[in-house]
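Ticket #4471: structure output looks truncated?

Reporter: J.K.
Steps to reproduce: submitted the chain below (508 residues) through the standard prediction queue, then opened the result file.
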Amino acid sequence: MAQPKIMGVETEYGIMVRHAADFDPVASSTLVVNSYKDRELRSVVWDYEEESPHLDARGFQADPSGPTPDDASNAVINDILVNGGRYYVDHAHPEYCTPECTNARDLVTYDRAGELILDMSCRMAEQLLDNRRELIIYKNNSDGKGHSYGCHENYLVDRAIPFQGLVDGMTPFLVTRQIFAGSGKTGAENGAEGVDFQISQRADFFETEVGLSTMVDRPIINTRDEPHADEKQYRRFHVIVGDANMSEFTTYLKVGTTAVVLQMLEDGVVGGEFRLRDPVAAMRSVSRDLTCSEPLRLEGAREMSALEIQRSYQRLAAEYVTANAATDPYHEITADVVQKWGEVLDALGDDPMKLQRDIDWVIKYAWLRAYRDRHGLAWDDHRLSMLDLQYHDIRPNVGIFHRLQKAGRVRRVVSQDAVIHAITNPPLDTRAFFRGTCLKRFPGEIHAASWNSLIFDVEGKSLQKVPMQYPQRGTREMVGALLQKCNSAAELLAAIEAKPNADDAGGR
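Returned output as attached by the reporter:
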């Protein structure tokens, strides 16, 4: 039986400072992250001892790329949020990681909450700059100068699945998923063949099928073996091929369909029947095919278009979801994802422009094409490139997407009230509830945090680590009453120690 699909998204945002001749992206990102405050104290550091990004699923460990920051630097570049997420500086970008979620709708909510957190951070940071300087954040994947930054998805999967099984089943799906998950882009980068407009911002930057790196020689399937959970039971499937999406509906389909396909893999419904002859070439080919109908070569001398491959996955998913309705606690959402997946594929096969309220690349393409035609511009005109970038501007009154949303011209999946609530409240049904609630109630008594532990610093005692190895535990149902009755971290730790047979915070 498939594992529950606990999932999350981590997004690196583009950043620039207008009217700054000495723009430093690292310093600017640090300023933005440090300007945000969601609790009284900011003394909690990130527990890097729980990190293992160099373990490879193929059975070896790569050399570490750099030193672990000291506590002073750690506190500057990291903020662990009361909503259960993480907000930090990743190289030259501010990065927001959602808390762990159990379903696509919650994940959309917390992803959108991240945009508001970034925007609030910028407004706070600007108060420390001179009046002429303006911080601008983009939720996109490229600076237009050959540098790409990621929007990574994470899904909890069963360790029992052979990694090659994930490669065989997920590569065709991820390569062709961009026909509804891409954010759209004018032009080409990374030495790729020129194009007026393409479906995906990331497609040009993938150069190999399988590998560990996320920054050079990028692979379609990433082999990072860092589950942030019980490593004997779980694997984290780390997806780096996706675009950063502005459209809630696009994100909803992107993460919802991927979760369903992973469940089908675990239950043996999907295997390697759609293996592509050259996945890297197919990645770029699909991105350039706005009709979604060009044939791709599969192993065994077969050919199928990206649309046909996606339809095959969707038909299997429809049968699978119906057959497993009784055992899926989120069946309503899962069934809705699969139904809308089919509707979108039908529209793509008929006329993609029918989706200009729904899918990022179509929304952007329709808007840019109308502007281009109105002003008689060539596709390589710099004004279109600037408008492409402005689509991803997260400022509510400036970004093109947000202006379209305000005008009611794009589809929403979640309410704005739910998004605002998610800024300072964790999900109720994962371990993020325990993490976020502890950070909110006992901020001065927590020394460090990670995805799978909290380290408490209670006066008169040595540091005490509480493990959280099971993401589906630590929920409000499991620990809400306990947290409510404890007025201090010391009381909480005493109550935890008094629990018999407790081996993980989520189980207490």
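Triage note (M.O.): checked the attachment and the full token line is present. The longest helix spans residues 104-126.
Status: closed, working as intended.
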